[in-house]
Amino acid sequence: MDRFRVVGPNRLEGRVRAAGAKNAALPALAATLLADAPVVLRGVPGVADMRTMRRLLAHDGVRSAELNGSPLGVSGAGGAAAAAVAGESVLELQPSTGPAPDEAPYELVKTMRASVLVLGPLLARRGHARVSLPGGCAIGVRPIDQHLAGLEALGATVELTAGYVEARAQRLTGAHFRFALPTVTGTENVMMAATLARGTTVLENCAREPEVEDLARLLVAMGASIEGAGEDRITIEGVERLGGADHTILPDRIEGGTYLIAAAATGGDVTVDNLDAEHLAPLLEKLAGAGAVVESGPGWVRVRRDGELLPRDIVTAPHPGFPTDLQAQYMALMTQARGHAAICETVFENRFQHVPELARMGASISVEGNLAKVTGPTRLSGAKVMATDLRASACLVLAGLVAGGETMIDRIYHLDRGYEAMERKLQSLGGRVERIAGP
Fold first, then answer.
1. In what order do the strands lie in the sheet with 63-66?
2. What is the pLDDT of residues 228-250, one digit of tens each?
3. Which ranges of 87-129 would DSSP assign to H, the alpha helix?
4. What pTM did the predictor assign?
5. Hey, what CATH class is 3-18+251-436 in?
6. If phi over 0 gives left and psi between -120 and 50 gives alpha, with beta otherwise, what is residue 76?
């Protein structure tokens, strides 16, 4: 099992490029199940979740090929995260031309909750889908009841048996459906299913994340009729078929935001290319308020800090609020701010598992329910710590960059699920980070 060795303190400086967004690439890959012609996806990130989704699609008859020797096929120690940093990853996906399975078995999906995104496309295109239920998650339960309710509103018959969701519909029919609460994957799943439904579908209280918009752009390029993606009301006019498309995945705002937080935490100066400042407005506002200098232009964002770091409270919320996926990294930053910062987590019920690990490094953090109170600045010291989930992994890397001495981070397979070649990107900025291959 691979580990990271981080030797600090570090000051990060330079430029780094954000990869395509993992949370946009996964639904884009699932959407190829709807197509009856090849789909080309550009900017697919070289992370472990992409390999998992490709294996699942292959099982269901969609073949994928790398058009430019992209890092997605890298294997061995480090997997995709040890791949080359430079170069755009391009995949061509060929839909099935004959009978193929219409299921997502447990063995293929147990490591990736986003596998549930194949449910809507398989049902809409093939009339039947059998998908393993995603289990519990380190950061929360994340049920899929809203996915199922939306598909039932479109006319599907849904049964839960032996750990699987089984859905059937000869052809889905457009309907009016309101999500009980905004859900990104739920919005994406039902939106994909509705593209091939008969008639008009209106979805309300939809997730407004940029990744939902990106999926809609791909579906429209494939021939779908969708209006309102990125707003809380989406209207879909069903069509008879979806064809091929050539689509570029939008930049990963969470990866880019992580490196910008790292710049502020280390008193550094980092520019992230291939990044949209508008998608990170809540974070950039907090970084500026905390004493960093924030600049941006078309396709880039720069953060630098020379002076004292000030505490700023955050409350996580669905987009356009502060992203829950940046909460852990922001907590690492606040350990270096002078004063008290309150971090309120409203999206997931169990997303403070990084707190005990930060405490091992000397952080002063108290937790009451969904509220964490951070007191700083504290002199962090290197220690042996364990990653518990994807974003907690990034939090510990940032803490290691700030801390004095050596930090060893176990279980970085979590990190590899969502960060492309993080150690190489940090090395390019002056970070003393190395991957140590496990047995």
1. 63-66, 90-94, 39-42, 245-248
2. 999 999 999 999 999 999 999 99
3. 106-109, 119-126
4. 0.93
5. alpha beta
6. left
Q: How far is CA 23 from CA 47, 102, 117, 295, 409, in A?
A: 11, 23, 11, 25, 24
Q: In this structure, how many other beta carbons lie within 10 angstroms of the beta carbon of residue 408?
A: 16
Whether 15 has a pLDDT exceeding 90, the answer reads yes
Tokens representing residue 421 in the block: 């070649």
Give CA–CA dist 120/27, Å, rounded.
11
Catalytic positions, written as ranges? 137
For residue 393, how many other CB atoms are within 10 A of its CB? Answer: 30
- The alpha carbon torsion through 376, 378, 384, 389 (nearest 10 deg) reads 20
22-248 has the same fold as 3-18+251-436: yes
Q: Using one digit for the tens of pLDDT, what is the confidence trace for 184-224?
A: 999 999 999 999 999 999 999 999 999 999 999 999 999 99
Residue 270 host element (H or E):
strand 269-273
164-168 and 128-132 strand pairing: antiparallel
Q: How far apart are CA 291 and CA 255, in angstroms?
A: 21
CATH number of 22-248: 3.65.10.10
Residue type present at position 436: I
Residue ranges covered by each domain of the chain: 3-18+251-436, 22-248
DSSP string covering 132-187:
EPP--BTTB----HHHHHHHHHTT-EEEEETTEEEEE-SS-B--EEE-SS--HHHH
Alpha-carbon Rg for the chain, nearest whole angstrom, is: 21
At 261 the three-state DSSP class reads helix
For 121-156, write each residue's pLDDT tens digit: 999 999 999 999 865 445 444 578 999 999 999 999
